[in-house]
Each structure stands twice: as C-alpha cells, then as structure tokens.
Write a structure and sequence with these properties.
With 246 residues, this protein is α/β, with parallel strands linked by helices. Helices cover 44% and strands 15% of the residues. The longest helix is centred in the first third of the chain and has 28 residues.
Amino acid sequence: MLALMRSILHMAWMVVTVVPWTLAVLLVSLFSRRAAWWTAVNWFRVVMWGTRVILGVRFQVLGYEHLPIGKSSAAVLLSKHQSALETLLLPTLMPHPLAFVFKRELLKVPFFGWSMARLDMIHIDRESRSEAMKHVIEQGCRLLSKGTWVIMFPEGTRMPRGQKGSYQTAGTRLAVQSGAPVIPIAVATARCWPRRGFIKHPGVVTVSIGPGLASAGRDPKGLMREAETWIEAEMRRIDPEAYPSV
C-alpha cells in the first residue's frame, strides 16, 4: 500500500511539474535549441529529486571516467533499456546534450511530446526501416558534428528484468559512419521501476558506463557484438539477482 501511495504521489509530481517546464522549453526553443535542451534537463533533475525523495530510489553511477572529455568530443551511447527511468536519468548524468532516437508517434504525447518536438532529436517512422536508417545516419552525423551525443537503445524496446532482446546495428552503423566511439551502458533500473508496472519500489539503481569502443574501420555488426557482450556481462554483475545461475 505504501509503494502504491508513493507511486501515485510521484506521478502527480511529474504531471504538475511538466506543464510549466514544457512552456519554458517551448519559449526558450524560439531562441536556442541547445538552451532548450538544458532547460528540459532541469525538469529531468526535478523528476529525479522526486524519485529519490518520494519513491526512495537511490542512484549508483559507475564509469564516469569512460566518457569522452572535451566540448567537441563525439559519442554514440548504446544503453540497455528496462524502463522509462533511464530516459529521465541519463540526460542528467551527461556533460553533452543528448539526441534520442525515438518513434514519431511520441510527439503526440501532450506536453512531453510537444517539448520533444522542439528539441534537436531524431524521430523516425518505424514503418520504413530503410528510410529510418538513412534518417538516423544523416541526422546523427549532423548532431554529432555539433557536439550533441546520440543515444540509442539497440534492443529497440524495454526489456523485462533479466532478459535480452535482439541488438540492432543502427547505432554502430552511425558510429562507424561518423567516426564517433561507442559508449556501452548497462542499467539495472527495473529493480525499482518496472518496465510496465505503475508501482515503483525503493532501492538502489545502478548505472554502469563502459569503456569507449573505437569505431574507425570497424564492421558495424562486429562492433555491436562487442557492445552487446559488454552490456550483458555487466548486467549480470550489477544485477545478479535477475540472472540466477542455471
């Protein structure tokens, strides 16, 4: 019952705060898309404050030293995807603006989608895979050249805790095309924030940032296999309860 009450209160916190922040993002975006991003990140920080205080979820972040240093450094982030929590948390951890790759239908979500439409993101039509891939590479290279990092979830959807999906190569194709390194990220968010369940639980969420993988001259499939191997092995290390030994 307590977890349910906390979850309702946290949802109310998100709904109440998203409205003024959406208006702020829309206003700031008229002058600067980059400034609009950092305005949006401030809302993510407000949500994370509520996640800590209201839900009792704490965060442990490992591997900060693996992030590229420098204003002009590029990176393609490939992250495990278990819940909505990592989409809210990861922007607050990164020193660069992020461009998410997401399906175009999300732009129709009131307030949140409207804000996303005013940010420099990569929205795709999943009905046309070839066009979507072309769009990701073209827009991704443009954003990476401007100092924006591209973040993708190579499994394509949120995976249940302890399970693995099929890793797609769009992220590594972009990395090879642009020359940006791949940064693999493992997240054990489903421990506290279920993939689809409304009720969240207190506890510790671990985010582990892996060493950068050079992309120059690499085969996208081989590069993705290397990223996948690191992510899945790290998932077993940071959330061993989700992967019982056979």
